[in-house]
Write a structure and sequence with these properties.
With 214 residues, the protein is an alpha/beta fold. The chain contains 3 helices and 12 strands.
């Protein structure tokens, strides 16, 4: 019995096959990228609020518990860290992360709050994201104030360009369910901005990964 006849494609057919594969490859790559991006949700934005500093403090480093020579001793000390990446997971090295929050008594360093904030609490901090996209702050577990659940305001900038403004909430805090801004978020967005503050060797520890749609 004769073996089956093998048909070897000619040069013209081979060229057409390669050309078709080259046309299809960007579609496959784009689809893979779209699937990757679909699994990485951007961190939801939220209102800046009325208390972004009118005038920045002289001390704007990442340690909110020390304002110049003053040391803040109220509240629960906490480390807040995380990463800043784009939708592809690429670190946004060189971006700036700012946070601001009220002191343990619920007061901001802002004229609209009547100047009642504790001068020892820096209340505002700024860091530059490192090559791996990481940032870190020393602060307190956010405290509630009239009408709001505990939260920390967060802003990400690329130079003067604002990439994101949002708010960070405490997982399991009983005030969350009554907070009008937290309740507006859907379940997935709530999970993205609500993190646990867990006991650690040097105070509470919280990690807040930030994903920015650049």
């Amino acid at each position: 019995m004769r073996p089956p006849l093998r048909v070897v494609p000619g040069p013209a057919l081979q060229r057409r096959t390669v050309a078709a594969a080259m046309v299809a490859w960007p579609l496959v790559w784009t689809g893979a990228r779209a699937r990757a991006q679909a699994g990485r949700r951007p961190t939801p934005s939220q209102t800046e609020g009325p208390f972004y500093p009118v005038r920045l403090p002289a001390d704007v480093d990442n340690d909110l518990l020390r304002n110049g020579p003053l040391q803040y001793a109220q509240g629960q000390p906490a480390w807040l860290d995380g990463t800043v990446t784009d939708l592809d997971g690429k670190p946004l090295a060189g971006a700036t992360v700012e946070i601001w929050q009220c002191d343990e008594a619920g007061h901001y360093h802002h004229p609209a709050d009547g100047g009642r904030a504790d001068p020892a609490f820096q209340g505002f901090g700024r860091v530059t994201v490192d090559a791996d996209g990481r940032y870190r702050f020393r602060t307190i577990r956010p405290a509630p104030y009239s009408g709001r659940t505990p939260h920390i305001h967060v802003k990400v900038k690329d130079g003067r360009h604002e990439l994101l403004t949002t708010q960070l909430y405490v997982q399991g805090d009983p005030h969350n369910e009554r907070d009008f801004l937290w309740r507006r978020l859907d379940e997935a967005d709530r999970r993205a901005v609500t993190v646990p503050f867990r006991p650690g060797s040097d105070g509470l520890q919280a990690s807040f990964p930030i994903v920015v749609a650049t």
